[in-house]
Design goal:
Order of helices and strands: HHEEHEEEHHHHEEHHEHHEHHEEHHEHEE
Largest sheet: 8 strands, mixed, barrel
CATH topology of the largest domain: TIM Barrel
Strand content: 15-25%
Distance between the termini: 65 Å
Structural class: alpha/beta
Number of helices: 16
CATH superfamily of the largest domain: EAL domain
Strand order of the largest sheet: 6-7-8-9-10-11-12-13
Shape: globular
Radius of gyration: 23 Å
Helix content: 25-40%
Number of domains: 2
């Protein structure tokens, strides 16, 4: 009786919250979590049709979970209108997938619910898929649109992120006819997907010149990335599509300054690969780094005027690969890019679950000169010693703390403690998933340095970055 009363009270709170806050992926995700029956849940995550994580309730998702989502998306795409599949995982968990979109329409994405299979019993699917849960999934269909992979110049947010004067001439902005960076040679893509090696070889663009007889014999050497790339060829001189392989599409989410002072700029890089690339997170990491290095080398004026760092969230397999930092060092040397321009985000749960590997990776970043970001930082006593490293220059607070801070005193105390502690260590502090102006004002008042969220800025293609305006 008491359990039923608590569930009814929680349901009332969910509908009240739904009416008071803007309906975005994050807010609907939290409402969905509250609508789930009392189970031993591990996490709830929301994805678009290209397997990009739009929202995650807690923890970190590894390659096994990623592979489950890729397979589920393929099944839903092949059989529109299919029921919600349930899949058991070897470690005692069960995954339930809820498709986002009309029953017979284009698949916009899916929701994955991970729960304890032993606790849930044999009726996990029936217990999770309630009428209220379906209503929240239908609400997601209104805000999650099917992603059409392809054009590098496409901006799904309709927002141009300009760091220069808004009155700049139109011809100075990126256009569909200007490619941001050269495309990978097909052989290089295959090599990366198969071996994970960091390659800096590009597909040469055809020039509109007179035909030249081919040499009688001898293979042509593979083109290498010079320290500074030449400007891209005109669109009319681009190589035929059949002769080139698509590079990973890179988008950036800015860390917006909440306090004045300082010229340091931070951008989180969010790679969007093809379904084939998404199957191998470690290979996708290599492709993302390769694409980022190519863009940085070709657009130095967009990021060198002020200290700028681009951060990438790496998979577990990449963190455990001792070759990655060695290959990165060679790539930085060939492209003449300072290691300060690159940072790597590590989720706090990985810092405890893979402690030895994370410590080794952080030490390697410190020697190389790259920065490290602790993502989802919650003041875990096991993670605090990692802040001694000079490589750790930013912590992103656990969004559950900042979301609950205005209602829960303990969450408020933890947020204030994190802000003050890292300030003593000379480390920047960022809040994420800020979707309320009330939370934004409070975080600014307590001294948080940076923020990400729907009320601040959206993710945009990296091509839209421009040089900052002169001071």
């Amino acid at each position: 009786m008491h359990s039923a009363a608590r569930h009814a009270h929680r349901t009332s709170d969910i509908h009240t919250a739904a009416a008071s806050e803007p309906q975005g992926v994050e807010s609907i995700g939290r409402q969905l979590c509250g609508a789930l029956p009392p189970l031993r849940l591990h996490s709830v995550s929301i994805y678009d049709s290209q397997c990009n994580v739009l929202w995650l309730s807690e923890g970190a998702l590894g390659p096994d979970e990623h592979a489950l989502v890729v397979d589920a998306l393929e099944r839903f795409a092949a059989e529109p209108g299919a029921g919600e599949p349930e899949q058991r995982v070897e470690d005692g968990r069960a995954a339930v997938f809820l498709p986002i979109g009309p029953p017979q329409g284009a698949l916009a994405g899916l929701v994955m619910v991970l729960a304890d299979a032993k606790f849930a019993g044999d009726s996990l699917l029936e217990r999770i898929v309630t009428r209220e849960v379906r209503e929240h999934v239908q609400a997601l269909a209104c805000v999650v649109q099917p992603v059409v992979p392809g054009r590098v110049d496409h901006d799904p947010t309709s927002l141009v992120l300009s760091l220069a004067n808004d009155d700049a001439p139109a011809d100075s902005r990126p256009s569909p006819d200007r490619h941001a960076h050269r495309e990978l040679a097909p052989a290089a893509v295959d090599q990366i997907l198969q071996t994970g090696e960091l390659s800096l070889e590009f597909e040469p663009r055809a020039e509109p010149a007179a035909e030249v007889p081919a040499p009688a014999q001898g293979p042509e050497p593979a083109p290498q990335l010079p320290p500074v790339l030449q400007p891209p060829a005109a669109s009319g001189a681009a190589a035929p599509a059949a002769q080139s392989a698509p590079a990973v599409l890179l988008e950036v989410l800015p860390f917006v300054k909440l306090r004045s002072g300082g010229r340091m700029r931070w951008f989180e890089v969010l790679p969007r690969g093809t379904p084939r690339q998404n199957r191998d997170p470690a290979a996708l990491d290599v492709l993302a780094v390769q694409g980022l290095l190519g863009w940085l080398a070709e657009h130095r004026d967009a990021w060198t005027a002020e200290p700028t760092t681009f951060t990438l969230n790496l998979s577990i397999a990449t963190l455990e690969d001792d070759r990655f930092l060695r290959q990165l060092s060679s790539g930085l040397g060939r492209s003449a890019i300072s290691p300060d321009a690159l940072g790597f985000e590590i989720a706090e749960p990985l810092c405890t679950q893979r402690r030895a590997q994370v410590e080794r990776f952080i030490s390697g970043c410190e020697r190389l000169g790259c920065s490290v970001v602790i993502d989802g930082f919650s003041f875990d006593s096991a993670v605090i010693p990692l802040l001694r490293s000079k490589a750790v220059r930013l912590v992103k607070m656990d969004p559950r703390l900042t979301v609950a801070a205005l209602k829960d005193k303990l969450s408020q105390a933890l947020v204030v403690a994190i802000v003050q502690a890292v300030k003593v260590l000379g480390i920047h502090c960022a809040a994420q998933q800020i979707d309320s102006t009330h939370v934004l004002r409070w975080l600014t008042a307590v001294g948080c340095d940076l923020g990400q969220g729907s009320v601040l800025a959206r993710r945009v293609p990296i091509e839209h970055l421009q040089a900052p305006a002169p001071a």
